[in-house]
Design a protein that fits this description.
With 245 residues, the chain is mainly alpha-helical. The protein is 71% helix and 0% strand. Helix 4 packs parallel to helix 6, helix 7 runs parallel beside helix 9 and helix 7 packs antiparallel against helix 11 (218-231).
């Protein structure tokens, strides 16, 4: 005799994965951590020092003169990598750019490499961290996000012009905001020109430089601060002058 009761299938328990966690994020974070760890473990920063640059300047100059296109490509990729991974050594690379390519072309190549690397760092921070930050602190950050988004170009330009704010910090924090990529790239590319030119120009006199402090003199920093404050002029104008009647 067949029992009239029908046994129900046992429900399958699914493992829930947090929305802000994915294999892609874990993979990217792991690659970045390994790259940064390898940089410090193998002491690669030794090659990005003023002493190393001076010791190898003849070889670097000879290679650049014989392989100009390859030298430019290697330089831009190296700069983008250092900037994208937030590694130390960007100032030395800027000096090297000025020494190898001249002040004008050095500034141009530095700008391409730095803007590329900064954009990669910006996008990485946005992909890995912004959702988590929005979920945990969105209620408190809402007004800041709205205000920053309305005047993002002027704010970012100021942060780039004033060297008091570490370059890598601006890259990462900007990725947590709602600023669009186009505005970020434009403000970064424009804002780093003065500082890049100062260091690239100094690179032409590499033999006379004994410390990076000789380049970033109080007068130079003061000029950058004034440029940064000037970039805030549109915001001040809109807030205190151009109020609707």
């Amino acid at each position: 005799m067949i029992d009239g009761k029908v046994s129900m299938p046992t429900p399958v328990t699914e493992t829930t994965v947090p929305a802000n966690l994915s294999i892609g994020k874990i993979a990217i974070a792991s690659v970045i951590a390994l790259a940064i760890g390898a940089f410090f473990y193998f002491d690669l920063g030794h090659f990005l020092s003023l002493t190393a640059l001076k010791e190898n300047r003849d070889n670097l100059l000879a290679f650049t003169e014989a392989n100009f296109v390859a030298a430019v490509g290697i330089f831009v990729v190296a700069y983008a990598t250092v900037t994208g991974l937030s590694l130390p050594g960007a100032a030395i690379l800027t000096l090297a750019g000025g020494f190898l390519f001249g002040a004008a072309f050095g500034t141009l190549f530095v700008n391409v490499g730095a803007t590329t690397g900064a954009t990669l760092a910006f996008l990485t921070a946005r992909y890995l961290l912004r959702d988590t930050v929005e979920q945990k602190f969105g209620k408190w950050l809402g007004p800041f996000q709205e205000g920053f988004a309305k005047n993002s170009f002027s704010y970012l330009l100021t942060l780039r012009l004033i060297p008091l704010f570490p370059f890598f910090v601006v890259n990462l924090v900007s990725g947590l905001t709602r600023v669009n990529v186009g505005t970020y790239v434009a403000a970064t590319a424009l804002g780093i020109v003065p500082g890049s030119f100062v260091y690239a120009y100094a690179g032409r006199q590499l033999g006379t430089i004994n410390s990076l402090k000789e380049i970033a003199s109080p007068n130079v920093i003061g000029a950058f601060v004034l440029l940064g404050l000037l970039a805030l002029t549109p915001i001040v104008y809109k807030r205190f002058v151009a109020k609707p009647a």
